Inverse folding.
């Protein structure tokens, strides 16, 4: 189920490519979740190691770029695993949880997790979160945003300089329009939920009317020059794909 027009990746990945794949550690005990999750993540370009207990997670954490951590583990509380991982370094952690979102916001701050996803979640949503957290982690360690502009079809997005070009024409975007486009482009072709755009582009505590988002989307569409690049998924959110 390729979501792009690009040719499917070759079955045998050469060593150079393989070493560039971010290494994820999935800490989850339920086989019904682990199996499809690992398959989906590997298809999405990650190397995946699985730990089914908290003890195993701590043993396997070396050399991992990001941890996906289930809070409900058989041997110890996932929250304790999160704290233990934190004491060992600053690898990013995304918590997978069935618990309520409000509780998690508080818990996240206490635990030092970077983000959380509430079960049941979709693969695309998870992959978008993983990429976003990995990107922020690179920014933290390198002290700068991605050096290389992101090229998506005719569009070039330079996060470091906060500049955007369509073919050779630079677009004059407002700061919020740029943030919105950059957020949508984090996972080109995937639907980004309205609430997430509002929380991450505006303010995470911004629960007011969502008309602001529609106004910015309309303006962005006009400036991009092709309204089809941002499609509306009614009742869900928006999908960006200029290819
Ligand atoms: Ca579990």
């Amino acid at each position: 189920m390729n979501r792009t027009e690009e040719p499917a990746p070759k079955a045998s990945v050469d060593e150079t490519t393989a070493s560039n794949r971010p290494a994820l550690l999935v800490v989850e005990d339920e086989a019904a979740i682990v199996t499809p999750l690992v398959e989906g993540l590997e298809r999405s370009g990650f190397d995946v190691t699985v730990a089914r207990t908290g003890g195993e997670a701590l043993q396997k954490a070396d050399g991992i770029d990001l941890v996906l951590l289930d809070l409900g583990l058989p041997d110890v509380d996932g929250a304790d695993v999160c704290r233990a991982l934190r004491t060992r370094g600053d690898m990013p952690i995304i918590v997978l949880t069935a618990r309520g979102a409000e509780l998690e916001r508080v818990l996240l701050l206490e635990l030092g997790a970077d983000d959380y996803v509430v079960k049941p979640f979709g693969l695309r949503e998870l992959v978008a979160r993983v990429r976003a957290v990995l990107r922020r982690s690179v920014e933290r360690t390198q002290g700068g945003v991605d050096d290389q502009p992101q090229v998506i079809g005719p569009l070039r997005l330079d996060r470091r300089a906060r500049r955007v070009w369509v073919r050779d024409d630079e677009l004059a975007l407002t700061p919020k329009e740029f943030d919105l486009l950059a957020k949508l482009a984090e996972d080109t072709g995937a639907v980004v939920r309205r609430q997430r755009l509002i929380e991450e582009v505006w303010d995470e505590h911004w629960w007011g009317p969502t008309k602001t988002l529609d106004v910015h989307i309309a303006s962005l569409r006009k400036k991009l020059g092709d309204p089809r690049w941002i499609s509306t998924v009614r009742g869900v959110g928006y999908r960006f794909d200029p290819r």
